[in-house]
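Bumping my old thread because nobody answered last time. Still need a sequence for this structure:
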């Protein structure tokens, strides 16, 4: 959504600041690209403009940081407590230490200690907390949810929701985190606070406010469904949603809500026209029905199922639009040599295929996105999506999950990525369990 700043957390996941990690390497790559293009005119690149000199290095913190990188979790914990108690280090220094401590918190016994440090940081170093609050809240929530301790997650998320634009990428990841773990009420309260602030914020991509509004509308519709509201109560939902998005199509909203509640049923085959192309509006109704199916048949929390349906919709709609095709070879690149790859059969329009799903996941896990929870919830519920389509008697569907087997290698790779990079210990085991017997 935004370009990584020098003082942001490095998108490679190292836990370090960008300027202390991959900045030099990225700038070198850009310089090499310019040299390779030779005389091709290039637009000025703000990233390579001379920036103000860095602040003078604090000898105390420089020495401590070197020790900190080499230390184990317990020693890191002691050193961070010392830094907080002694009021040492500037905001960047403290952030780097906390990020590394979080990275090394891999067991149940270590996560409570990190959260106690985060609580102390919040109380004792308000300057540091405010500067990088989005990251710190995300760390706290991951740890708390891993420990099944939800006592303070609302308080922390609401605080981040009062400044969502400061680290909007991390805030959106935190939304996915809460949705994945079924925290509908907390999410709704936070998004109600965040949306007006995001709409007024400057410097955000134009679609960000629309995405936050869409997520809040989903939360409000779910609240309506969970309350067991009837058709006669729809007017109350309409008024709430029109406050969020005045130009909402009321009839589409009604149809969407009723599919979510299981009161309407769209035929999966009705989604396809004579050219076998998807009707995306009807696809949104089908994925809403799938959310209800997950809740009723598998006991999946509504908000988690909605995230799964949302990601299935995103994947299928992007594939339908041709956005997940293999990239064409650059005219600057060498000519392909070797045998032409065999043509693969076309997947059913409602079912995933390995190539495009691989590209979709790669896009979602791009260095500047890191949507681990969105990818995990998609992968975790693809077997249930297959069962749902089979229940709907979709023609030409490979029965008994046979069509999922070509995805096995991709899923196995994804599980390893989630284990190594997601930071949430729940993701990899959940995906692995969902695919047991398939991969």
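Sorry it took so long. Here it is:
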């Amino acid at each position: 959504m935004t370009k990584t700043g020098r003082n942001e957390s490095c998108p490679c996941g190292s836990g370090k600041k960008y300027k202390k990690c991959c900045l030099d390497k990225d700038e070198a790559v850009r310089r090499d690209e310019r040299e390779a293009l030779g005389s091709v005119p290039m637009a000025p690149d703000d990233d390579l403009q001379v920036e103000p000199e860095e602040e003078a290095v604090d000898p105390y913190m420089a020495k401590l940081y070197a020790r900190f990188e080499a230390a184990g979790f317990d020693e890191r914990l002691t050193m961070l407590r010392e830094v907080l108690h002694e009021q040492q280090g500037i905001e960047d220094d403290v952030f780097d230490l906390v990020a590394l401590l979080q990275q090394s918190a891999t067991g149940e016994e270590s996560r409570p200690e990190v959260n106690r440090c985060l609580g102390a940081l919040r109380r004792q170093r308000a300057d540091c907390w405010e500067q990088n609050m989005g990251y710190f809240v995300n760390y706290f929530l991951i740890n708390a949810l891993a420990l099944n301790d939800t006592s303070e997650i609302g308080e922390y998320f609401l605080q981040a929701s009062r400044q969502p634009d400061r680290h909007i990428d991390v805030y959106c990841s935190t939304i996915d985190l809460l949705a994945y773990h079924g925290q509908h009420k907390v999410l709704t309260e936070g998004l109600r606070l965040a949306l007006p602030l995001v709409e007024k914020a400057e410097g955000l991509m134009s679609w960000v406010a629309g995405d936050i509004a869409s997520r809040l509308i989903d939360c409000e519709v779910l609240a309506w469904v969970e309350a067991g509201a009837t058709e006669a109560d729809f007017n109350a939902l309409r008024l709430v949603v029109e406050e969020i998005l005045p130009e909402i199509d009321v009839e589409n909203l009604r149809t969407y809500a009723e599919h979510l509640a299981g009161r309407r049923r769209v035929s999966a085959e009705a989604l396809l026209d004579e050219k076998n192309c998807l009707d995306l509006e009807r696809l949104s109704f089908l994925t809403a029905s799938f959310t209800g199916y997950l809740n009723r048949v598998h006991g999946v929390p509504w908000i988690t199922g909605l995230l799964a349906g949302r990601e299935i919709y995103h994947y299928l709609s992007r594939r339908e639009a041709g956005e997940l095709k293999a990239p064409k070879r650059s005219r600057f690149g060498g000519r392909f040599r070797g045998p032409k790859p065999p043509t693969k059969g076309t997947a059913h329009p409602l079912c995933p295929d390995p190539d495009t799903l691989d590209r979709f996941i790669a896009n979602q896990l791009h260095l500047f996105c890191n949507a681990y929870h969105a990818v995990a919830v998609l992968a975790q519920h693809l077997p249930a999506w297959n069962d749902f389509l089979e229940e709907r008697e979709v023609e030409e569907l490979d029965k008994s999950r046979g069509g999922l087997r070509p995805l096995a290698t991709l899923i196995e790779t994804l599980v390893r990525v989630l284990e190594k990079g997601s930071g949430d210990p729940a993701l990899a085991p959940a995906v692995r369990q969902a695919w047991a017997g398939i991969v």
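The two ends are 34 Å apart (CA to CA). Let me know if any region looks off to you.
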